[in-house]
Amino acid sequence: MKEPQIGEILNLYHFTVSPVEFERFGSGHIHQTYRIHADGRFFILQKFNQTVFKYPDRISFNQQYLLNQFDPKVLPFELPLPIKNKDDQFFSQINGELFRIFPFVKGMTKDAVDKKSQARMASEAFAHFISAFSQVDASVLQESIPDFHNLVLRYEQFEKSIKNPKIQINAETRKMIEFYLDKKKLLEKYRYYQQHLPKRVTHNDTKINNLIFNDPLDKVNAVIDLDTIMAGFVFYDFGDLVRTVACREDESSLNWGAIHVDLEKYEGLLEGFIPVLKGKVSAQELKSISFGGEMMTLIMGLRFLTDHLNGNIYYHVNYEEQNFHRSKNQSELLDSLIHHRNAIRKLEENIS
Question: Would you place residue 27 in the very low, low, confident or very high pLDDT band (cuts 50, 70, 90)?
Fold first, then answer.
C-alpha cells in the first residue's frame, strides 16, 4: 500500500492528515495489515479480504450490536473494535476495496503456548469474553461465515467429495477416509447439544495468536480478530483452544508419533475457563466443553481431508499432499483426545 492511498483513507476519518508513518504489521494471512502513526498515535489499518469474508455488512452489524450491549469496564482487557469513519461506518470503501482502522493495542502475540500458565491466561480471556455477553440475545447476531462450525454440513461436504474425488485415492488416503467416517458417531452428541444447549455470543476463532499479551507474558491486553463473532456453543471456543493450545505439536507437524494431547496445558485451559463461567452459563454447557476439543479437531480434520479430495481448492498448500498431512495430524490428536477421555474427566472433576 502506498502512502498517498493511506492519506486518502485517513481523509475519510476524523484525522488531521499529515505525513504518516506506516509499516506492514503482524503475521496474519487473511487481511493486509499495517501499523500507522497519525495524529501522534498508533493505529492498525487493514485492507479487508472480501474473498474470505463475503458478508462485511454482517460483521458490521454484529460489531455494532456488541458495542450497544456491553460496558468495556466488565472486561479485564481491551476489545479493539473498528473506529467509525465520518459517515459513522466501520468500513471505508475506495475503488471497490474495503478498509478499516482499529485502535492499536501495545503488546505481543504468540503462535504457540510455552507453558501451562499461558494456556490458563488464554482460556480465561476467552471465557471472560463469553461471560461479558452471557445475557445478550445471541440469536440477533448474523452469520459472518455461514455454517462455520456446523459438523453436520462438514460431513455432507466430506461425503460428497468421496463420491466425486478430484484425485486418485490411494491406500493411505482410503485409510484416512475410513478413519473420519468411523468418527461420524460423534454427530449423535453434536445433534444432542444442538437441541439442548443455548447459543451464546462466541468468538469462534480462539487461536492463541488472537490474543495480545503484555511484554512479561503475565497478562492478556486484548482479544482481537473479531470478525468471526457469531452465535455459537460454549464448547466451540473451548474446543478450538484445546485443538490449537493443548497439543504437543502444531497442526503442520509431520512428527506423527509426537502428536498427543498435552494434559498439563489442557488442565491450564480448564483452570482458566471453568471458574470464569461457572454460574454464568449452565452446568450442562460446562460439561460439554470436553466434547468441544474432540469436535473442533474432527471438524478441522474433515475440512483438510475434504479439500485434499477436492484438489486443494480452499486452503493454500505448499505441496500436493499437505492437506492430507494436515488431516492426518488432526486424526492423531483426535485419537489422543478420545484415548484420554477418562484422564480429562478427572481433571474437570478436580476443578469443578
Answer: low
